[in-house]
Amino acid sequence: MPRVLLLSTTTGYQLRSFSEAAERLGIELALATDRCHLLDDPWQDQAIPVRFFDDEESLEAISRAAHERPFSGVIAVGDRPAVLAARVTQLLRLSGNPPEAAEATGNKKLMRRKFAAAGLPVPWWLELPATAEAHDVAARVRYPCVVKPLGLSGSRGVIRADTPRQLEYAVARVRALLARPAVRAHRRGLEMELLIEGYIEGREYAIEALLTRGELRVLAIFDKPDPLEGPFFEETIYVTPIDVPWQVQHAMAEQLQRATAALGLVHGPIHAECRVGSAGVVMLEVASRPIGGLCSKMLRFTAGSEHASLEEVLLRHATGEDVSPYMREEPASGVMMIPIPKRGLFKGVMGEDGARAAAHVEEVHITAKVDQLLEPLPEGDSYLGFIFAHAGQAADVVAALRESHRRLHFHITPDIAVETQNTEHRT
Questions:
Q1: Rounded CA separation 214/19 (Å)
Q2: Do residues 397 and 390 make contact, with C-beta atoms less than 8 angstroms apart?
Q3: Environment class of residue 413 by beta-carbon count within 10 Å: exposed (0-12), middle (13-18) or buried (19+)?
């Protein structure tokens, strides 16, 4: 029986999806997750305890497990797990990415440098070290521009600035986010350095792809119908297929192939973001991992009479199987990542039955927990949940997602501790 190692955070949404897919395929799935190594299997999943900020200790634990029972392949869910996964595949001589390539996907500064060196179109950018004053650069950069932390993903900490004053405010706000203990605990060495770059005009798309020995195959391209123009860049709806000429789609695939080569990526899942506008196709981010959260549920594949989830395709690919026969199913599909409207404590939701009854909607999954502290972007890193829809046309999918969301009513109460702090500050 093939055995695949899956590296993920303990609370990763995708763990169950991969576990179910592995069971269907007859693949043994071994987990390596970031949990306390002193506790005796607290989640009862027999996972290997790892720490994504301590590669050496984690590699030793995984090496011991591989010595007892070898792995056929490795998959990572999340940006930091992807770096450790690359080191694991190198250590165990399995198909994967070079560690330095995986590291570059999680560092926006390295990514920009590699893209520029390869002749890919990139915006102007400059680095803002932790000790630098935003006031010193605010008067000499061009606007609009965007402030980004080097190591966060999912648009977290990304803020657009149209004036020097807005730039100074954005830098202060992002630095406050990076100074939080929960962020600093990741220990990536990128805690306070920022990137300031030119704002890229154009419509934004996401691309899901697979690399096999350096050759890229696009699995799906997603449109993002809600404008992402700032000041924050919260993603809400993904829908596929996209309504653009095939020449544009070919250009996206071609630029992504060039981008992965520039980074040195050679094998495994790819999730990328790009903008298409007057400057052509500009790659924003390339991650050496699959799409996050529960979003993969909107993708379905077929090979003859066989149907498969994205997780099944990735597991087959990790074991060395040829997955080229698997094609995305034709009906349009999409997901809404339900945005958090305001900071506060989640108390519940009404209207779920009505939201599920909306035409073309297949599932409404609320992931927020009662009394969970919610926080919108740019500080937040989660959603209220996910809505999934399938229909004959992409426009019908988008309409279904919006209608389903309209029927949901969330009860969020103010965070008393923050409100008290703000009141004291005002007085």
A1: 27
A2: yes
A3: exposed
